[in-house]
Fold each of these.
Amino acid sequence: MLESLSDRLQNIFGGLRGKGKLTEDDINNAMREIRMALLEADVNFKVVKDFVARTKERCLEAEILDSLTPAQNVVKVVLDELTYLLGESDSKLEFSSRIPNVIMLVGLQGSGKTTAAAKLAYLLREQKHNPLLVACDVYRPAAADQLQTLGDEMGVRVYRGEGDNPIKIAKEGVQDAIDNLRDVVIIDTAGRLHVDEQMMQEAQNIKDAVQPENVLMVVDAMTGQDVVNVAAAFAEQVDFDGVIMSKMDGDARGGGALSIREVTGKPIKFISAGEKPDSLEEFHPDRMAKRILGMGDVVSLVESAAKLREEEIAEEQAERMMRAQLTLNDFLDINRQVRNMGGISKLVSALPGGDRALSQGQVDTSALDRMEVIIHSMTVEERNKPDILNGSRRARIAAGAGVTVSDVNQVLKQYNETKKMMKQYLPALTDEPVRGKKGKKGKKKKKRGMGMPGLPGGMSMKDLREIQRLMDEMN
Amino acid sequence: MFESIKQGMENTRTKFTEQMNILLDRGPRVDEEFWEGLEEALILSDVGAPAAFSIVERMRDTATRKALPDAYAVLDALTEEIAATFATSEVNVFDENPVLVLFVGINGAGKTTTVGKLASAGKRAGRKVLLGSADTFRAAAIEQLAEWAQRSEVDIVQRERGADPASVCYDTIERAEATGANFVLIDTAGRLHTSDDLMRELEKVVNVVRKRSQIPVRTVLVIDATTGQNGLNQARQFNSALDLDALIITKLDGTARGGIALAVSHELQLPIAMIGVGEGLMDLQVFNANEFASALISEELRGVTHEDAEA
């Protein structure tokens, strides 16, 4: 599997320690590795060529060659350049004052347009818009049914129209939005090949008919070298405004994203990662750059953790945690939250080097399941007061859970470690003693929860390192 | 058949030809620039950088060893090389009779459409076709397959959305046995290979089918030709979970060159049973490694260049 680029560079530069200075040859070696890493991430060949040339130039500057840590500096240059290529600032949807605003989705077959349409509707509704979905895919059997079902599930109105003229349906859809007081119309179109002139013309005709504020192209993150041809053809004929990268929950590095930006100049607006309607996220170039290089995406992970914690940690539980009186039930809750964040594999893959650990089977993804089974085999009393677990109780639990006593011991050991860890760092975060006033707790919790400046919610970098360490122990 | 594949892969070939023409404009000399161009063309066709490097390395070897005179001779040798890289099987899974085929793959690869087209082809060939709709997850997947069944006038087993896919398979097998169907095609829900739970679910489905079915069971992975290097990861995961029998490459009618097919077929030693080269019912074709390789390196290009060489 892929080694992360930083690891590779460390390997190259590792042998040069004591040499004092890097030569152009060393840089050339590094560039070869960078080229390989980018090609393996499906960045377009031509983009890679230019990129490597540009990066090499910057790396040959004296300040990098002469620095004490050339490897890190080279990685930093690469990361900077990648981020620059992906678009320096986050690019959001721009709305006009027209009502309704129209968003049209285009793309190849199977890129995930219909799913993305539904997710976009969900996101817009969260942002207090009132969206309408319009089903303009008259070719694929049951495509309109699919959108209808997704719309019904979320409670978003779907207009599907009659007949097989997508232009007419699109127009009627906009009118339907006016009649039903919807402020955003999302038009889902049929998948089409960029070389199919007739179908490309149709997309253009739909666009002319409804004059959308935003045309978004949905691109599968797993697309290979061909993505630039596809995107360039769509840009020329339909002139889209931005890109939604779909299927980002897989382990594809999405190097195509970088290529699209470079070749067409169109920014990526959203990434879609998951089967659930709430899995459409705004795109952040810096995080994507790290992903392409295999450097993990800790920030997104912390955000999703923070989101879950805000939603799910009950006040009472939060307070117990603050006092470091963690029970095994809390342990189960944490377990459930990890699952909600996409399970251990997602958690691990977001950590630097995590992809590699997963692929090499260093991470036992079933550890959490086993832990859950063991805790479920305990009585309520045992869960609340794990101290009472003596030898015979442990033997009973092991038999009940179908594991060995040492497995049970290990869970308890992890529990004690976690408890100890919380005790250690909680006082540092708590600048005032906990008082029992119910009304203020919510606020206090948030304030105390700030582990590190810049990181939202109740998780700090320390937590993440701790999670990683604990998971290492599980193996 | 050869002609139709060539037709379908027109774009693929044109693209490669373009690359090669640019190379050959420089005359048939085999120099550094030629090798670099060849490497580039291979990488751009998604065979992957390591594979491209190793193919070029081997061709360099061959060129020296066999004293190949010019670029054309190298391209001829390359055709053979590429053709030989594909894994082959004696019998195409869709020619087995009777057979039950499970279609698996990631979301949007084209499983349902492929099942629909194969149903129509099976019906035309006079086989007794039965479809099973085990994609009970995606909205309207069942309706989509039902529509295909209706178009080709074949029988279909379906349950409501959210039903257990294993039980749909079970019902399909029972129906097949009761009616004597000999061409049973089961569509499953698309899933990413990184999703442990969904992969386990699929494993269970496949196991149920293998245990229960009297008819020989084959599991086929459907891959989109536009897929890049991630295709290898997909194929590895699906293969290790399900022990695949063959591949189907879809959407070869775009400009995508489907080089990933070469990488997957070679690494996992899986034969490619079918390729999809268009939207029409007849655009699903039997794959043949030699034809694929020949079509990749254009006949025209060679015809033209040979004339030039003679002149």
Amino acid sequence: MKKMNRREFLKKMAAASAVTAAAGLSPEISFAGWSPLKVLPGQVKWKKTPCRFCGVGCGLLVGIAKGRAVAVKGDPASPVNRGLCCVKGYHSIQALYGKDRLTYAWVRKNGKLVKTPIQEALNIIARKMQETIQSHGKDSVAMYGSGQWTIPDGYVASKFMKGAIGTNNIEANARLCMASAVTGFMTSFGADEPMGCYEDIDHADVFIIWGNNMAEMHPVLFSRLLEKRAKNPNVKIIDLSTRTTRTSIASDKSILFKPQTDLAIANAICHEIVKNGRVNSTFLQKHCSFKKGKTQIGYGLEDKFKFQDSPEDSSFEEYKSFLEDYAPEKAEKLTGVSAEEIRFLASLYGDPARKVMSLWCMGMNQHTRGTWVNNLVYNIHLLVGKISTPGNSPFSLTGQPSACGTVREVGTLTNRLPHGVVTDEGARKLAAEIWKVPVERIPAKPTFHTVEMFRALDRGEIRFMWIQVSNPMVSMPNLRRYRDGAKKEGRFIVVSDVYPTPTTDIADVILPSAMWIEREGMFGNSERRTQHFEKMIDPPGQAMSDTWQIIEVARRMGFKELFPWDEKTHIEQIWNEYTRFHANSKHALASYDELKKSTGVIWPYVNGKETKWRYNPKFDPAAKQGDGFDFYGTTNHRACIWLRPFEPAAESPNEAFPFWLNTGRVLEHWHTGSLTRRIPILHRAVPKSYVELHPQDAKRLGIKNGNRVKLTSRRGSLALSASVNKKGRPAEGQVFVPFFDEDYLINELTLDAYCPISAQPDYKKCAVRVESV
Amino acid sequence: MLLSLSKFSLVFAVTAALGLDQAACGLARALATQKKPATAPVTGRDLKSYYSRRAFLGAPPVIAHEIDPDMQSDLGDCLVCHESGEGDAPVTPHPQFLSCRQCHVPMNQEKLFKDIDWKSVSPPKLHKRMLPGSPPPMPHQLRGRESCLACHDGPAAVREIRTPHPERTSCPQCHVEVETEKAWERSGES
């Protein structure tokens, strides 16, 4: 009966909206349209590539005709998306054709950007880098890259900075999105990246989503969840979130919690699992150890903040008394989640008959206790032994197309090398051997993580920064400080990009980059899948791949012997050199030829076989044979259960700033929008930023949809139009603003507090005042 | 509008008349549509508006009406009208996909952020038969369009591509996908 009413209601709604649509924007408007090429559909050549956008890594087939990309379809052969894409993927190729593409280099002369031949711009960059090193030392030059770097881009960047110049001043924007996932994996398992893969979705019965609007952020995977549920009504999707979103609406149960309290929820679930005897004792005894670390660890708000955890062994007994603080009734007060709901979650995780997949992304990673909350969700899976088997899978989703493949696997971070960390002599020796450089050249000490790198630029310790495939002048938190810092006298900024952005606005040299299928490359997605794409079309004008830009500059600085490759075959040669770093059964990568012909290969790839579930000897040849599991990343081959408490956010609302500000993405836009805003359908769907308010808050403040609202934090203020009950609905006392719009720089308000262990900033929590203007 | 419509109907009639192997009822229906336009109200979509909502052949079309509440306009709510063609709503050719807003987005503004130099292949020519009267091949892939009648029949069918024989349910029996424009050449030794 209720359903009928809803159907009737919707039909009426549709009839009404058809009238309003006709009165306003005519649906008959010549909207998309395209200039027709004189080519028949049957003459189009289809070539495979991973999508340019998110970390899901959908397989696309791009239609090529007359030297242009003309159409996209989902690759039915791809095990990731099985032929379906999202609206960004379908229209991705239009991002190649914005009329303001950067097609030649620009160099700032007497304060003005002047069009310059790219070879001359490359000379200027090499000379400036050398001069800066001579006058200020090696650690005064830095490179800032991206999880949208291809694997070869990241590899040559790391070799150039660490192996050729000899500085650890290399970071990437994945520090802002995946660092807590990495430190979570490293502290719990001693090895990065998920143990399972997307195939877990086909086997799981329960999906618990932690702080991730998956319907918009990982739409293709989310529709795999929905498809699974449609086939099997026993499947449950639970959305744990601070904001009501499409994901909440689509879930079987939406549970709202107060910001930052996911830490307490995870501990409370474990409290219930232990109390109700749902612990898998055999698994726990054979495969787990207990540890505790420092508490009250700070927020990294001060310059040159340093933190070093000192883990100590703990025990199940100590863990049990630690959990006493998180009895459901106590947790209810802190989290806003009822004791009943906590017990319900614990019963789902604890039921031996159900296979459970946890999924998360930025809510847990962009968190001043990001490492801890990652640890705590692993704790739940470890207590019940639901891990590393098909369908039992704690799954950390990635934001960017190659945050895993490039930044995490190649290690384009200050503390990392392509294999291991810079502080490990063995890792430095291996890198020196493969790179054929003296081992002393690779510094043993990490320098600056991303936030601290931009602070060092502001302070003047860094004088030269080369930014590729990233838009930090939109995406850095506490943006004003870092923009003012980058613009200071005596700083030299090089930006490689495909369109003008607020970051190219502050550049001294702009290099035009070849984008995605205009060059050859590889990406690595969330499920350890490496995917190759060939060069399908020519880049416009003088645009050059990021890989080749770095090689050109390195050669000009006298490092030709380190970058000897031929322009035609360099990607293959780079791949062959890079894969030597991972030539072991724990991380072996597929050969270049295998990647070229497949829709991606999951590593470890051993004896022609993908490893879909790591640490499980049934699937993983690196795991010791036996009847259990082998968490070989740690020295004792055990996974670690951590005693991590709840600690408050760096900045919470008070009387002067009574609202939480949460920031994030929308389905239609990719990150800072520099690509997707040039795609007509996407821009027209979400043309500008807005602030979402809860209807009660809006009413109380006298704000209606579309009214101008001013947000003020301790760092800045911004006026945008109000959005009530549209895409998402924040809880009372919270507001949400997307960050894609360069005309509404919400990051001027956000706080640059970060997780002391991962150094990843928290974009989800700071305090603001809300006023109607 | 009426002129162009009757022109298309004429093409329909001629081609249908040439389709000597077609069942009589198909022909009758084609002839019936030929007579309709002059008096009957215009229903359905035409190809021009069909293409105007897509960035290229095979691209997911834009949502051409308002949606409210935005958050909930997903998961079967769209199917209330788009599953069977309530009113004049186009029928989805892929009702198995539930997360509609993953691919289909509304248009809230016409002005672009920056101009774009976008080109794609020409729309396929209609009624491209290999022989007089033979069934025309499908100029598009079938994936995502498993239900042929969604676009080729019903009140919201695209006028120019409306089938004259909706009662024949096994469409791929006669209409095949075009994979290549090239003729087959023997690769072995001659």
